Amino acid sequence: MTPLVLLLDPLSADARPTEAELAATLRFVPSTEPILTAFDAGAGRGDGIFETLGAHDGFARGVDAHLQRLRASASKLDLPAPHDGQWRAAIAQVLAELPSEGQASIRLTMTRGTEAAGPTCWVTGTAITGDFPERTNGVRVVTLSRGYANDVGESAPWLLVGAKTLSYAINMAALREAHRRGADDVIFTSTDGFALEGPTSSLLVRHGSTIVTPAIQFGILAGTTQADLFSFLDAEGFSCEYRTIAVDELIQADAVWLVSSVRLAVPVTEVNATTISTDLGLTERMNAALLS
Ligand code: PLP
Which of 75, 82, 127, 176 counts the most CB atoms within 10 A of its CB? Predict the structure, then answer.
């Protein structure tokens, strides 16, 4: 199936459109049709924000949480606040066109656009064929410095570390560096020795019956999958904590995962070429819970 593209003519956050007016702001376009000018700030500067949602058997996971994070990212970048009902309607329209069985990803994008026309906004839907073997086989990671200290979120908010911006060139470069080093993925570290997150995932670490993840004030993205998993793990009797995680803890942990909306929970099998413990039973239960 070819990917779906739905263009939004963005409404201001406080607009109260009728159903017909709302419908008129949403338009499917062929995925081969250009939708940006060469002067769009999203294309020229990576100046914009996005969200990627996972969908399964006709349901999108975490719509509220993703829209909340989109709003938070827009606010951090001084972009206009997204109209909640319009983005919800766009997600629903894309979902309705995706296969009703199997997995899919839905991506929301808002660029700063151009000064004359304002933001460019669209939603894509892509059906996922095949499995994610990493969910069972795991990934080998290397730790790579992100180049700043743990307090960067507070000391230099203009670096936008907690916003989901379109500027992912650094994240993709880190993944290529991991591949050059014979690994599959990355855990970013702060210059003061703490583990942060992956380039496209949050970090979870198990010590016995405690599961920890770095707190978001340490300059990481607030993960929606991590939040869902904390609810599940809490109900399973684990104690879930937000705190700093020293890089050395990764080797000593009972299990380490990278978690994200589409790939879900992936066990880390090696850190910097050292094999670490995994918990495949809990990984399976976490992924089953996310897909249920
Ligand atoms: N951290 C970063 C840098 C990410 O890019 C992502 C997702 O793409 C995540 C964490 C995980 O977020 P979520 O679980 O909401 O997909």
Answer: 82
